[in-house]
Amino acid sequence: MVVGQAGIPGVGECDEPGVILGLGSSSQDFEEHITRLNSASLRTASRALETSLVAVRARLNYSCHINQLPPETLATIFDHVPPVVKIVTSPWKSSVKDCTKLVPVTHVCKYWRAVALGASFLWRHISPSFPAQVSVERSRNQPLYICAESEQQEVLHKVMHSGRPIVELEYDGMLDKGTILAYPAPSLRSLTLSSYFGDLSRIEPDRPKLFDGQAPRLEQLSFTDMFCSMPSNTFPALKRLHLSDCIGIQSSDLFSFFSASLGLEHLVMTRIDISIDRGIKSPIHMDHLCTVFITEVSDETVNMILSGISVNEDTVMHLARRDTLTVPQCYPKTNLRRLALWYTHHAVSIMATGSSTGILSTCFHYGRTHEQNYAFHGLRKLPLSQITELWAEALPSTERQTSSINMLLPNLTSLTTLHDNVSGTGYVLKHFIEDQSNPPLCPDLRTVHIRSDDNDDEPLNVGLICKFAERRKLSGCPITRIVINTTERERPWPDHYFKRILKELKKYIREVEFEWGHLPSMAMPALCNNRVHNRWKPWNERWERLREVVFDHDDDGNGDGNGNGDGDGDGDGDSDSDDDEYY
């Protein structure tokens, strides 16, 4: 090597690596040196820097710890980079990813690019935001996960025609009149169709057979915003069915579909219109059905669906946003033991649970002027004689509405525990005090929980409770335990008031307890609280939200929490959508 001035290799006198090493040895001296270089020498130095910097950075990148990982491990890490495509039309989470987010990975360095492009499974996802043909080519023979729109129908048709395995297909085919569903799909596990008017059109006289009848692995099926008929396939592996905003379905087709899909576990129906063309001879037993969620569907349609099937006692049902309170009669038997009631400003909700059975039903009444006990007629269909716990969370409090509770209590012959969380009315206890029946109402009732209103000067009507306990004792059905529940973290009353309460209650009740800091909630099967899909909000969350709506409404002075206000705290007679979604 020839050494130039200041010990720096002379540009033009040595090879390019020598120039780079010289730069690194004394950059300050080199700055003085290059001021004396001519243009040709400067261009030579520039080329040396450009060429060598690429090689140096490549080697430096390779020396990073992450690049010491095996390519298979690095590719697995890359697989976590692209986010899952959000499919708003389906209640179930998509598995399709957005490959657009993988592109920056390929620009980091040559090694990352080689690993990313060499891992075909990273590119097996087709989505609207990334060129479909690129995904098809880079994924090579990997099974595909597809979320496509009408603009991508040409590629989609080619893929379907080629017989390439498809695991998941989500298709918004508003502009597609073709027959993409005519090809066999032996690998398909999930199908979501939205605004598609091809193979499933009701214009065709016969029920279509999807995928030429060859979709043996299909587990999940979702139709949204379609004028369609139910496919005539037998789906032995189908576990999840979702129908939303669909018209043109006939009841006979639906029940035929149920008969061919007896492994169904989760059923979701929203705003569907089903034509009742003929009845069914005997209900179809859905032995594997775990959850049913039906909302914004007419009473006639809901009653038709539920009368055409039978389910096991461990099936959980949520029937929401109805015109009347519906209690399903498709259970040959239930283990229901607990019942909760909300009669709020614009809706009536009931929740009935047992060790494995769960029913949540809601109807809206929106300011109807006629007598409102219609909502409680559905309660007659519950096995009231086996209910042991009653949770009164919010009830009508006017005299003209009291016949609803009068109807309910005489049928609760096995009731042992009452939770009276109705704010400040003493409404439920008064019914027991005024009871003259023989035997008395709820003869097995022994334990009563009463909510204390923390915001009142006199939060507990001790006199009413004592009168109630005395009346029960005289009737031969004494109350042996009473629990005062309050959300205050510490005892909310002064000592003298607390001692007076305790002394008065002890005259009539053997066990008097106070629980601070929380209000208990009703027990329910674990399945009720599992987020089985994004339309299914856990019931314990619904419970707490309903309780907040009622209590907040009571605290703000716009009503009594029992149906006389608007429930959103502004007193204008309307309600917030955030509250509505919990009904």
UniProtKB/TrEMBL annotation:
Give start and end of each F-box domain: 66-127
Domain of life, per lineage = Eukaryota
Disordered: annotated segments: 552-583
Biased region (Acidic residues) positions are 567-583
User: Pfam families in the record, alphabetically?
Assistant: F-box-like (PF12937)
SUPFAM superfamilies, alphabetized: L domain-like
User: What PANTHER family does the entry give?
Assistant: F-BOX DOMAIN CONTAINING PROTEIN, EXPRESSED, IM:7136021-RELATED
Q: What is this protein called?
A: F-box domain-containing protein
Organism, as annotated: Obba rivulosa
